[in-house]
Specification:
With 594 residues, this protein is mainly alpha-helical. The chain has 24 helices and 2 strands. It has a domain at 73-427: Amino acid/polyamine transporter I. The chain is globular, with a radius of gyration of 24 Å.
Length: 594
Amino acid sequence: MAVGDGGGGGVRRRGCGCSKEDFFPEESFSSWEAYGRALRSTGARLADRLTARSLDATELHEVRARSGADMKRDLTWWDLAWFGVGAVIGAGIFVLTGQEARNAVGPAVVISYVVSGVSAMLSVFCYTEFAVEIPVAGGSFAYLRVELGDFMAFVAAGNILLEYCIGGAAVARAWTSYFATLLNHHPNDFRIHAASLAADYSRLDPIAVAVIAIICLLSVLSTKASSRFNYVLSVLHVAVIAFIIVAGLTKADAANLTRDFMPYGPRGVFAASAVLFFAYIGFDAVSTMAEETRDPARDIPVGLVGAMALTTALYCALAVTLCLMVPYGEIDPDAPFSVAFADRGMGWAKYVVAFGALKGMTTVLLVSAVGQARYLTHIARTHMMPPWLARVHPGTGTPVNATVAMLLATAVIAFFTDLNVLSNLLSISTLFIFMLVAVALLVRRYYVSGETSRADRNRLAACIAAILASSVATATCWGLDRGGWVPYAVTVPAWLAATASLWALVPQARAPKLWGVPMVPWLPSASIAINVFLLGSIDSKSFMRFGIWTAALLVYYLFVGLHASYDTAKALAADAVAGKVEDGDAKTSAPPML
């Protein structure tokens, strides 16, 4: 039985055009009786979905076709590089550098930025290979669906969508704060006080909502136009950073950097790296634009790797400049660059810093809006979310429904919720997904269904389990800070042995067709270890949020997403066996989901 495509053929109604078929077209939701039968089959269906894996061709053709219209392939490596810069370099760099230099690491903060940059680059490599091989809008959701199955993909993607909403809301409210600074006002001067609401939700922020609305409008009009706007703002932002570096170096004192370079020792360097890693987060949104890239094999590696290299260089230069201007013990933790310039007779520079922060936050919001909509679009293409959200507008070539839905949720959170509350909800989702993508890459290289022998499959599973276990043990030892360096003499060699065993004992089953991560399995294994290590530095509130939201996702999946995706996969398999594809315009040689 065919399942509605949520955006393909058929007569389109004017106006909203919404009906039950737009949201629940599957057989399991055709009647209450059918839904009851589906619920009684939950156990068998869950077992099927836990082991089912998609195919590259399915994600590239059948699943993508459910959006009705294609996204426009307008982007080049230049667009992707500036999207990467815009996504990563926000306002945080102006605050995090000072906080960590003063409280955790001293002038060696530049080494912390290098360590964080290297770890981020490892994740970039893993994302790049997948984005080149599977250039679709789903990003990590599509990659995990192919290698680890749609259950794991849904849990991971659901978490990152919540993080996008929370992160976007936090950035939008911070936008109001920096805007107030430019006008010499307190942020609450631009907010409405609703005394009847709880204190953390009583400062209503209409400016944050207005900024999100403008970003939403730009995002749905054209991806290429969004790219141009992002390019202009990112260039201005880089120019502001260049000004801060040049102007700051005119006030440099080399003694500030060399007098006590690493006052907190190696532990301080790595502790700061765990915090500063979050200054690199955002590049994963760029991978969701692969479907709109003209030449993925060329543009994605150049764009993503180039953006990360430029970002790391700018971060290190900013860190060196700040530590040359001010002794690390005198750095202001809240406004390090503004206060540093003011102390040296350049108080006007705080307006330049605030202007640069506004530019950075605007581009972060823009790239986040583009990325989160494409995540949601691809999830909806699989019918784990209502297929109405998968529609791509034939005129603009953008996922209008998904963009508006995500930014509406972000706007509601930003309107009510205090910035401190949002900061406490920082998620572990990104690191969790980075780790899963690295695991998925190892599975992709070493396992092909029907070709890899059972013995090799078992060795692969054992090696990956050992890599994960040794990484968790290392992170635990670091977090507990007990026993000095002795535990690492066990955990680190265990990681090395597990990775070496995978390299020596398990033959690679698949070579990348266009672009591949070098030094496999060493680089993906290192990415796993680093991301697990950084997960160990996250506060308990984030783990609580992760657990609560994941539990909510599981409830939704068991009652809705599981049955919708099961019906869709079985309909595709039936079409493939019959020598058909959903839209009747191509042939498949094997069932899309096994």
